[in-house]
Known about the structure:
This protein is mainly alpha-helical. It has 12 helices and 8 strands. The longest helix is centred in the first third of the chain and has 15 residues.
Amino acid sequence: MNRPGRAMTPSILGCAELYGRLRYVTNHAGAQRRTHPPAGTSTASAFDDHDPLGLHGHVLQDLGATPEYLDGFTGASAGYPAFGFRLTEKAARLARLSEEFEASWTWGDAIRAAASLAHQINNAEDDQVLGDMALLAVARHVGRQHPPEMTPLPGWSPPGTPLFLDGYPATLFGHVAADLRVDAVTATCTRETRAVTLFRSLGWRLTPRAEALADAVQHYEAKGLRWPDAIAAAAKTDVTHLERHNWDR
């Protein structure tokens, strides 16, 4: 018999999807949030009694883990596999390091540092898989890293502008791709203007709903909307006619 909230079908959780879900948590909780260890302990744990305490407790809760299921797990390395998610080597490093760093850093700093170190490991195929929830979370995170009045630069308006120029992101989704740590040199050489096509050319697999989201963001950006407004408008795109995959909302 499955424990409450346990994933019915084991799934492989890659680095990009886990990173996006970590960003989803900080988009809601705040990048400056800290994990406070329970009274009488000196280290942070992922779970505390019935409630998710740290970063990964919240991610697991968003993946469907119930409060009853979270009891008894003291770290992400045990929580994900026990809940039915096998982490790739790169995702496991992201989970382990971000959990270690959150013991003394803000959640935003912990994720950034852990992602940088995890990037030293080569991608496995599943490390480059993204659903619409994670992709939207990364887009929102990127939007918040820039001034709210950001719009396409004059003459650099999608869909005619490549996502990368001379190794630097030139559009909103260029910055999203850069945050997901695509190879900027290769991305520049492709001269791709459509995010979905760029990701495909670099070996990424986006769910149909994630692809629809990316196209919608670029559509609204091309209309001149500020980046936060383009993302918000795209988030309302009706994708119910598209198949819902494991990592979609």
